[in-house]
Amino acid sequence: MIDLGISKMALIGAVALIVIGPEKLPRVARTVGALLGKAQRYVNDVKAEVNRSMELDELKKMKETVEGAARDVENSIQTGAADFEKQWTETAGEAASALSGELPQVYPEYKHPRKKWRVKQGATPNWYKARQGIRTKALSGAARVARYRPQRLS
C-alpha cells in the first residue's frame, strides 16, 4: 500500500494550496473526504458480504451434519420400534394363550350430567320474582339511567 507519512502529507497539502488556491481548497477537501468515506463504506460492505458468505457455507455444512444425525436417530428409532412390536405381539400371544377364560368387563357407574339447571331456575313464577325484587329482564345502562332519572319539576 502507499506509505504516507506526516512529511508527505504536508508536502501534498502545500502543493494543493498552491495549485488549487485558498478559495477552492476547502470545497475540494470536502469532496475528497466524501469520496474517501464512500470508498471505505464500499470496502466494508464487501468485507461484510464475504464474511456472510463464509458463515453461510459453515451453516450449510452444520445443517447437513445435523440432518445426517437426525436421519441416523430416525432409523435407529424405526428399527427399535419394529423390534418392540415383534416382542409385543409375541408377549401378547403368549399372554392370550395363558388365559383360557375371559374376564367380565367392568363398566363405570352412571353419573347424572345435571343438564336441567335452566328448567329449575325458570320454574320460579314471575309474580314471586317481582315480590322478592328479583330482576326478570336485564336493562342496558342507558335504559336504567332513563328509568331512574329524577323527574324535573316545571
Automatic annotation (TrEMBL):
Record's bilayer topology term: Single-pass membrane protein
Any one GO BP annotation for this protein: protein transport by the Tat complex
Main subcellular location: membrane
GO terms of molecular function: protein transmembrane transporter activity
Recorded superkingdom: Bacteria
A GO cellular component entry from the record: TAT protein transport complex
Keyword Protein transport among UniProt keywords: yes
Gene3D superfamilies found in the cross-reference section: 1.20.5.3310
InterPro entries: TatA/B/E (IPR003369), TatB (IPR018448)
UniProt keywords, alphabetically: Cell inner membrane, Cell membrane, Membrane, Protein transport, Translocation, Transmembrane, Transmembrane helix, Transport
Subcellular localization, as worded in the UniProt entry: Cell membrane; Membrane
HAMAP family in the record: TatB
Function noted in UniProt: Part of the twin-arginine translocation (Tat) system that transports large folded proteins containing a characteristic twin-arginine motif in their signal peptide across membranes. Together with TatC, TatB is part of a receptor directly interacting with Tat signal peptides. TatB may form an oligomeric binding site that transiently accommodates folded Tat precursor proteins before their translocation.
Family (UniProt): Belongs to the TatB family.
PANTHER family found in the cross-reference section: SEC-INDEPENDENT PROTEIN TRANSLOCASE PROTEIN TATA, CHLOROPLASTIC
Record-linked NCBIfam families: tatB (TIGR01410)
Quaternary context: The Tat system comprises two distinct complexes: a TatABC complex, containing multiple copies of TatA, TatB and TatC subunits, and a separate TatA complex, containing only TatA subunits. Substrates initially bind to the TatABC complex, which probably triggers association of the separate TatA complex to form the active translocon.
Name the UniProt record assigns to this protein: Sec-independent protein translocase protein TatB
